[in-house]
Design goal:
Layout: H1 11-20, H2 29-82, E1 88-92, E2 97-102, E3 105-111, E4 132-142, E5 146-151, H3 156-165, E6 173-176, H4 186-190, E7 199-200, H5 203-212, E8 218-222
Parallel strand pairs: 1-8, 6-7
Antiparallel strand pairs: 1-2, 2-3, 4-5, 4-8, 5-6
Helix pairs in contact: 1-2
Length: 223
């Protein structure tokens, strides 16, 4: 095995000696002179050659980047096109189902948990989920329910009923996730209606809705 080159400046001399033979020291004076002349010549042109190769490499690299960027841009636009804009959330209480809608077409559906008592919400603390047309108007990270999106309850009809009955309509109706409880697993919560009037989903489902539904989106809650 040839001995490693001891220094960069002697690289060419080392290579020439290796080509002519490992016993170059036993060559004739003419051969040694040829070696030295070749090494001196190559040492002069080596920096220019390396610089030229570096320029070619960088040009190839930037060309590859320019070619790949449009591919990524097209892929990203394709993903965006394949995920329709959600313009409405529809909740069917009788089916315990939430639909994400785009132009009256269901994009995806989720199972939900509702208030502990059936029927439309009448007053604060009745443990019922409202029915009507609202909007998602703000959101927050919840200590108890992970992610939470606020439903704009009460609406005008709810306020009118409150005036007629003299009972407060309530507030803070949320679309939220599930508590992380060591005693009760997530599937246990999703199997029943357990909320105080909110609409609850599993945490993975809530993460999807959080990402898909923007503030200001209409939400309709039907019986």
């Amino acid at each position: 095995m040839p001995e490693p080159c001891p220094a960069p400046k002697r690289l060419i001399l080392y290579l020439v000696k290796s080509i002519l033979g490992s016993q170059a020291v036993n060559r004739s004076p003419v051969q040694l002179k040829v070696i030295r002349m070749a090494a001196a010549l190559l040492q002069r042109i080596l920096p220019q050659a390396l610089a030229f190769l570096w320029i070619l490499y960088m040009r190839a690299f930037f060309l590859a980047v320019l070619l790949v960027l449009p591919v990524f841009a097209y892929a990203n636009s394709t993903i965006n096109m394949s995920t329709p804009h959600i313009d409405k959330v529809l909740v069917l209480k009788s089916e315990r189902t939430l639909h994400l809608m785009h132009r009256d077409t269901v994009v995806k559906s989720y199972r939900v948990s509702l208030g502990k008592k059936s029927g439309p919400k009448q007053y604060e603390g009745d443990k019922r989920t409202p029915e009507g047309i609202y909007s998602i108007n703000w959101r927050k990270h919840s200590d108890n329910f992970n992610l939470a999106m606020h439903i704009s309850y009460p609406n005008a009809d709810d306020l009118k009923r409150s005036e007629e009955t003299g009972l407060p309509p309530g507030s803070m109706i949320m679309l939220h996730g599930t508590p992380e409880d060591e005693e009760y697993p997530e599937w246990f919560f999703s199997s029943l209606n357990w909320t105080e009037g909110c609409i609850a989903l599993t945490n993975p489902d809530m993460e999807e809705i959080w990402a898909s539904v923007k503030d200001g989106t209409l939400i309709e809650i039907r019986p």
